[in-house]
Amino acid sequence: MPSAFGIDIGGSGIKGAPVDLETGELAAERLRIPTPEKSTPDAVAEVCAQIVREFGITEETPIGIAFPAPIRHGVVAFIANLHQSWKGVNFTEVMSKHIGRPVTAVNDADAAGYAEVYYGAAKGVEGTVIVTTLGTGIGSAIVVDGHLLPNTELGHLEIDGYDAEKRAAASVRTAEDLSFEKWGKRLTRYYGHVNMLFSPDLFVIGGGVSKNFDKFIGYIDVDAAFVPAQLRNQAGIVGAARLAADGHH
Ligand code: BGC
């Protein structure tokens, strides 16, 4: 069974598991360790190293790590929801130092998007697919006929004078205690704008909240096709592992 190892770094937890590349399923139960409160590069990299050690994976197993920021040739361009000291850091270098071997770095939404196209909700869909993850922030992945355009940051579109994720992320719904109907209005504004800009063939809505898709999709009044993500919160792990195996840079 061809396999790779995936790690997904999030605002509240860091999760890792080996992935069966044939099926896109986790090959063992994932391990989750809370994100260190002071989420500096060294603290986060040490948790990743701990996760890799726990699984005792072989030397040849590719390791992919999904991170909530754009990563250009290994370097973190800016960081919205983790410690600000990540800005400008060479992510792959820090990780490789702690883990003791090379890793592949990838934006978390790109990882999730790639996984959904490869194994999940957008499998076999032709044309432009936009995968958005609604969580602490909003992440985006644009995949055209199976090809990923990396590092899009559509969660930071400025809409009505706001950074979009500050209005429409799932964490904002919880923090402001919004009903699905009220939150749906914000999603309508958000997806309406993205739809106008890109006219995608399909939107995939990911993030933990996608399990409640039926509770809010009726409130998104946008003339486009929407489906919930299938890999839910495993998508980051699976996509990072897949991209590592595919030699993504
Ligand atoms: C970050 C993105 C990330 C998204 C989801 C945004 O704030 O800028 O890079 O994909 O959150 O974690």
Describe the structure.
The chain is an alpha/beta fold and 249 residues long. The chain folds into 2 domains: 120 residues, ATPase, nucleotide binding domain (Nucleotidyltransferase, domain 5, 2-Layer Sandwich), CATH 3.30.420; 108 residues, ATPase, nucleotide binding domain (Nucleotidyltransferase, domain 5), CATH 3.30.420. The protein is 32% helix and 25% strand. Helix 1 packs across helix 2 and helix 3 packs across helix 8. The chain is globular, with a radius of gyration of 17 Å. The mean pLDDT is 96. The site of beta-D-glucopyranose (BGC) has 16 residues, from helix 3. Beta-D-glucopyranose binds next to helix 3.
Taking pLDDT < 50 over at least 5 consecutive residues as the criterion, the unreliable ranges are none
Which ligands occur here? beta-D-glucopyranose
Measured between the Cα atoms of the first and last residue, the distance is 24 Å
Sequence of secondary-structure elements: EEEEHEEEHEHEEEEEHHHEHEH
**Fraction in helix:** 25-40%
Q: In the CATH hierarchy, what is the architecture of the largest domain at level 2? A: 2-Layer Sandwich
Give the tally of β-strands. Answer: 15
Shape label: globular
CATH topology label of the largest domain: Nucleotidyltransferase, domain 5
